[in-house]
Write a structure and sequence with these properties.
Order of helices and strands: EEEHEHHHHEHEHEHEHEHEHHEEH
Largest sheet: 8 strands, parallel
Mean pLDDT: 95
Number of strands: 12
Strand order of the largest sheet: 5-4-3-10-9-8-7-6
CATH topology of the largest domain: TIM Barrel
Strand content: 15-25%
Structural class: alpha/beta
CATH class of the largest domain: Alpha Beta
Low-confidence stretches: none
Distance between the termini: 53 Å
CATH architecture of the largest domain: Alpha-Beta Barrel
Helix content: 25-40%
Length: 355
């Protein structure tokens, strides 16, 4: 299975595709948004992603106030939840500007639509649609993005396997090009979160949904979970991106900065080389070590020509040069006649032992 995102093929036999989720880290400034796109490109990202929404239509101010407090990662926000959302909006007139700048730099432009009308707005600009975990049970938007015919990337944080099945069933009615992300939606950046990531869910997804491409949408510190996910088959990685994790804002604290992002990409590229393929064979860089590290049958003492070789006459030692016999041949050697004198520690083979 492979799909095309922008100009790149994505799949198990291709390099990992990296999405830098700028999200709210533009801080309401389009020039800052463009700066982050440039930094993401320079750090090795394949795509820069934003989030398009109109706060008044996607969130209820009364509803959040009615919760009686702020919870999870939102508890650290200094402003009201509704106000933070409003500050994070990407105005529609930014879209073409950001898309054109991405094209100029050679990086794909993505955005998550948090509204049915926003799908229509984004469709001319994006190569695929990313659906956030919170909309996994929102069939209306799943259908809306699926019928565009563009690949659908969907995160599965804070969801059950039944909900994942439901979402995929809805998408597959109209679209077969899917990237399925394992995800945890706790954005606090706590080290305690690592025990909730459950990368092994990727194994479950691979078995149950072999027709999709696996991904990881990650909000933990560093890149350790990314490396684990790639080792388990993920080929699309999404992480938040900023230039300064100390900046004020909802997404900065758990984002990667340019040096960390670049290091992550470099480490994944090394990992990809290390993963290799499933063919088990002696590699060209270890051929010489076959001689150096393997044992062969050698004379434990001098063996006279014409004598029968006994168990106590042989031992198994390194190295094992070409033409020597491995220990597995010892039953064939014992009881056979020496064709010539064999000195102690000499190799026994079919040139000096009778077959």
């Amino acid at each position: 299975m492979e799909i095309k995102l922008g100009n790149k093929l994505i799949g198990s036999n291709h390099k990992t595709y990296f999405i830098a989720d700028i999200a709210a880290n533009h801080d309401g400034d389009i020039e800052r948004a463009k700066k982050l796109i440039l930094l993401a490109k320079e750090a090795g990202a394949d795509a820069a992603k934003f989030q398009h929404f109109e706060t008044k239509s996607f969130a209820s101010e009364k509803g959040f106030k009615g919760l009686g407090g702020k919870f999870s990662h939102q508890s650290k926000w200094k402003k009201a939840v509704f106000d933070v959302y409003q500050d994070a909006e990407v105005p529609e007139d930014w879209t073409a500007v950001l898309k054109n700048y991405c094209d100029f730099l050679g990086i794909d432009f993505f955005s998550t639509p948090y509204g049915l009308n926003i799908v229509d707005h984004l469709n001319p600009y994006v190569p695929a649609f990313k659906i956030g975990s919170g909309d996994i049970n929102f069939p209306q938007i799943l259908k809306k993005v699926s019928i565009t015919g563009k690949p659908v990337l969907i995160s599965t944080g804070a969801s059950t396997i039944e909900e994942v099945r439901f979402a995929l069933k809805e998408i597959k009615k109209y679209n077969k090009e899917i990237v399925l992300f394992q995800c945890n939606t706790n954005y606090t950046g706590s080290e305690d979160n690592f025990k909730y990531i459950h990368l092994n869910v990727l194994k479950k997804y691979q078995k149950e949904f072999p027709e999709v491409i696996l991904g990881l949408s990650d909000h933990t510190q560093g890149d350790i979970t990314v490396l684990g996910a790639v080792a388990l088959g993920a080929r699309v990685i999404e992480k938040h991106f900023t230039d300064d994790t100390k900046r004020e804002g909802p997404d900065h604290p758990f984002s990667l900065d340019p040096p960390s992002w670049k290091k992550m990409v470099q480490r994944v590229r090394i990992l990809e080389k290390s993963l290799g393929n499933e063919n088990k064979k002696i590699e060209k860089n270890e051929i010489e070590t076959v001689i150096l590290q393997r044992r062969c049958i050698r004379a434990k003492k001098n063996i006279l020509e014409g004598s029968l070789v006994k168990e106590e006459d042989i031992e198994f030692q390194r190295p094992a040069p070409a033409g020597s016999l491995s220990p597995k041949h010892s039953p064939e050697i014992v009881g056979k006649r020496a064709l010539r004198d064999i000195s102690k520690e000499d190799v026994l083979n079919w040139e000096n032992i009778q077959k």
